[in-house]
Amino acid sequence: MSYNYPTPHQWERGPKIVAVGGGTGLSTMLRGLKKYTKNLTAIVTVADNGGGSGALRNDLGMPPPGDIRHCMEALANTEPIMEQLLTYRFAEGTLAGQSFGNLILAALNGIAGSFEEAVTQMSHVLAITGRVVPVTSADVQLEAVFENGARVVGESQIAAFKREQDCRIHHVNLIPRSPKAAPAALEAIGEADLILLGPGSLYTSVIPNLLVEGVARAIAQADAPKLYICNIMTQDGETEGYTAADHLEALLAHGGPGLVDLCLANTAPVRPGLLEKYREEDAVPLLVDQGRVAGLGVELVERPVASEKGNYARHDPDRLAQAVLEIYRGRAVRIFHGARQYILEE
After folding, report:
1. CA nearest 40: which of 202, 229, 228, 193?
2. Do residues 73 and 170 share a domain?
């Protein structure tokens, strides 16, 4: 699996790819995809309430900027010193733990008429490839409801609360329910050539986007193929014991039928040293249960997309981008008697 980088003309006319999610997984994928197409839209959750983002949210009443900033950093075309500034975190004082990139976005939010406009202006400052769109401008909180009936409000509280309950998450809600989607998000979904869900935390990065009014419906009704990208590992405090099919079932339970056509799973081994590290956190490589995935009506594609470097089990940006493009190029959407069919191109 190897592709040459496109010519400038090919890059300009590349496929319209919409990636839905949040967190590190989404930004990692964007770093790879931006080399192959200019036409990227990241639709990003705004349910975070922890860390520096949560502090700005509480102090200024603005949506949390963290996941948005990560995506803009990934898509930015700036000098190295600007990259260092964006990721710099203050080590002491009242700003301890706060990211300089978050502060820039907070300042732009104060200048602009809306958070969406602040994101647009920062995108111009950083000369990003594509667009980053907050899924909603509403002030939302994430609530998790567990199989034993217990519930907790606050994205940053879910993992610890789950460990205390020692049972699975049954579902998550947004408070308030069904907030209005950003028009740009729905527009991008409708125009997409390919829609990506994940990679990222299942209940706290990917699913919250589906709970915004109209988003899941727009994805299901879109003509573009919908690809779910599995995580490399299960996640402590969120998806312990989950298989690939468990992830898909949770997505479909929250988003409804027609949400996913294909599922991309990793086949590259995770280094032994990393396995031991994750085992201490009760996390293991994701089991791909092929039969159950097929039973959900989802086509499974398996590729070696894990990174061979670093201290975490994450996707390799280039490997993942090439796998996504291979899937896209290998399928053409055909509408025949009202049925959507994916035809393998020879």
Report:
1. 193
2. no
Q: Residues 310, 198: one domain?
A: yes
Domain residues for the domain of 94 are 51-132
Write out the DSSP string of 296-316: TT-EEEEE--B-SSSSS--B-
| Integer CA distances (angstroms), 312 to 24, 97, 186, in order | 11, 21, 33
pTM for this prediction: 0.93
Q: Are residues 118 and 198 in the same domain?
A: no
Per-residue confidence (pLDDT) for residue 1, from 0 to 100: 53
Split into its structural domains, the chain has a count of: 3
> Position of tokens 């419906």?
217
- The pLDDT assigned to 343 comes to 42
Q: Are residues 57 and 108 in the same domain?
A: yes
Omega of the bond prior to 199 within 30 degrees of 0, cis?
A: yes
Same domain, 84 and 232: no
Cα–Cα distance measured from residue 155 to residue 274, given in angstroms and rounded to the nearest whole number: 26
pLDDT, residue 339, reads 44
Q: Over the Cα atoms of the chain, what is R_g? A: 19
- Enumerate residue ranges in the chain where pLDDT < 50: 333-346
Residues 192 and 222: beta-carbon distance below 8 Å: yes
> What does the pLDDT look like over 177-231, one tens digit per residue?
999 999 999 999 999 999 999 999 999 999 999 999 999 999 999 999 999 999 9
